[in-house]
Amino acid sequence: MAHRQQIWILLALPLVVGISHAATAGDLIIPLSCDIGRTCFIQNYVDIDDSPSAKDYMCGTLTYDGHNGVDFRLTSHGGRQNPVHVVVAAEGTVLRTRDGLADNPVKGDRRDAAKGNECGNGVVVRHSGDRETQYCHMAKDSILVKAGDTVRAGQVLGAVGMSGLTEYPHLHFIVRREGKVIDPFGTGLIPGACGNHTESEWTDDARVRLTYSPRAVLNFGFATEAVTNDMIEVDAVSQRKLTTKSEALVVYVRTIGLKTGDDQSLTLRDPDGRIIAEKGPVAVAQNQAQTILFIGKKRSTEPWPGGVYSATYIVGRNGAPMLNQVFRHDLR
Q1: Nearest Cα to Cα of residue 170 among 136, 202, 125
Q2: Burial classification of residue 273, based on how many CB atoms lie within 10 Å of its CB (0-12 exposed, 13-18 middle, 19 or more buried)
Q3: Which of 57, 66, 97, 222 sits between 20 and 30 A of 19, alpha carbons compared?
């Protein structure tokens, strides 16, 4: 029987916080060539809290203690075949580079393996106004510039990788002024102040594209078996084709930014609208950098009926929807 792989997003209602268009714009563009909110997301912001606690510039949870940059996370690692380019955020001069470190993700119990090379392969660029930008965790042998080069905004520096101290493919982007880390989303105000700041290092276009979202669906889809983080990171799920004769029908969602007090649920329906698997609402016991929820059903002796299967994912809080996403798969 012919198979057609097709997934549609029907509804996505993330809670987002708007920005003030009266804010003073800066000159930094987004430092990588991805589609914000679709192929890449901000996983972590600068920690603006000087205490052992942590908070991002909106007093949210998308950071951790001492985090000094902005993490632009990819939904999966395209590798050398489909690289995501790291680009210069503003005109400047390359101060230094490092390349040649392997793209080996470091799990929690192996953090010492990256000691001294936490940034991995990277580039530092000097800009006017005694300001620097730093680009970390780049792919091995991808860096295209050298110290002393004059670079322009948007010029390709290399590719996103997984070198240094990282567990997933992302660009760790740091901004410094006079040697001190600054938050590109909010500058010139009292340290620790939250909210949409009136001063920013980003251009107007970048500010709009980087609208703050406290939660986001990073990955979703249909699969033939239970799904793990590692499978998603290397895009192995989509390589295992779902057919009417697959032993199991599984639907999964990977989400970032869930908070203590949230709850999540996932429901799978067959082409006739009947529920064939469901889970939730499941309470979120503590703030989560990321979480995977999946449900499924094993096939009986008969093939799966052909047609459109649908899945509904809901994140709620105190009875109100924070995320509500429906997606479908046409099984032929």
Answers
A1: 136
A2: exposed
A3: 66
In the chain, the amino acid numbered 330 is: D
SS3 letters across 120-187: CEEEEEEECCCEEEEEEEECCCCCCCCCCCEECCCCEEEEECCCCCCCCCEEEEEEEECCEEECCCCC
Which distant-in-sequence residues (6+ apart) come within 8 Å of 205 by Cβ? 29
Domain ranges (residues) in the chain:
20-210, 216-331
Q: What is the pLDDT of residues 70-114, one digit of tens each?
A: 999 999 876 667 899 999 999 999 999 999 999 988 876 666 777
Considering Cα of 285, then 74, then 296, then 331, what sign does the dihedral take?
Answer: positive
Helix (H) or strand (E) holding 253: strand 248-258
Report how far apart the first and last C-alpha atoms of the chain are (Å, whole number): 7
Q: From the CB of residue 78, how many other CB atoms can be counted at a distance below 10 Å?
A: 17
Tell which CATH classification among 3.60.21.10, 2.60.40.2550, 3.40.50.720, 3.30.1310.20 matches the domain 216-331: 2.60.40.2550
pTM (predicted TM-score): 0.86
Residue 186 neighbours by CB under 8 Å, 6+ apart = 48, 57, 193, 195, 197, 199, 200
Q: In the CATH hierarchy, which fold is given to the domain comprising 20-210? A: Glucose Permease (Domain IIA) (2.70.70)
Judged on CB neighbours under 10 Å (0-12, 13-18, 19+), 86 is buried
- Residue where the block lists tokens 């470190």: 101
> ∠186-190-196 over CA atoms, to 5°?
35
